[in-house]
Amino acid sequence: MPTAAPHGEDPAAGARGSGSTGSGLITFAGVLLILLGSLNALDGIAAIARSHFFVGNAHYVFGDLRSWGWAILFLAVAQLAAAYGVLALRAQWARWTGVVVLGLNAFAQMVFAPSYPLWSVTVIAIDVIGIYGLTAQSTSEQWAPTADGTAPPVRAERGSGPGTGA
């Protein structure tokens, strides 16, 4: 049941809350993008430098440890850029860029797995959680696109809409 806003307050301002489930998931996914980007940057630099904590004599489908290190480092930069778009700009394009980058990272980690199997499986799991956070929204929340490409969350009123009799 909608309630009236106190005098002098914008009723739509209360509907746009940062405490909503969808907004929280998106923030969580943005933080995961920062975490994964940072860890992948370290992982990529270590692979480029051929550090000794990777499994020795690993065989890859194609390429070698150094080439996959460059690929992981490139994905790290893309993840950090997507995290900036998701967290600072709240841009719709950044969410979908994050989904694509996380999917590519999961694929790259599957190929990178011979060098550090347990780490790759862990990163793939975090990628899947991040993809969920970027794509899942509560049913009461909509993203209204704006002219500049950003999309602040706007919550719909409970009890309004099709099938509710309102």
Question: What does this entry look like structurally?
Answer:
By secondary structure, this protein is mainly α. It has one domain. It is about 60% helix and about 5% strand. The protein has helices spanning about 10-15, 20-50, 65-90, 90-110, 115-135; strands at about 140-145, 155. The chain has a two-stranded antiparallel sheet with strand order 1-2. Helix 2 packs antiparallel against helix 3. The longest helix is centred in the N-terminal third of the chain and has 28 residues, at about 20-50. The radius of gyration is 20 Å and the shape is elongated. It holds the Pfam family DUF7144. It comes from Streptomyces kaniharaensis.
Helix content: 55-70%
Walk across the major sheet and give the strand order: 1-2
The value of Rg in angstroms is 20 Å
Determine the N-to-C terminus distance.
Answer: 10 Å
Report the order of strands and helices.
Answer: HHHHHEE
Structure class: mainly alpha
Oligomeric grouping of the chains:
single chain
Low-confidence stretches: 8-19
**How many domains, in number, for the residues?**
1
Number of E-type strands:
2
Helix count, DSSP H or I runs of 4 or more residues: 5
The gross shape turns out to be: elongated
**Largest sheet geometry:** 2 strands, antiparallel
Mean pLDDT: 79
> Proportion of β residues?
under 5%
Protein name: DUF7144 domain-containing protein
Organism: Streptomyces kaniharaensis
InterPro entries: DUF7144 (IPR055568)
Keywords: Membrane, Transmembrane, Transmembrane helix
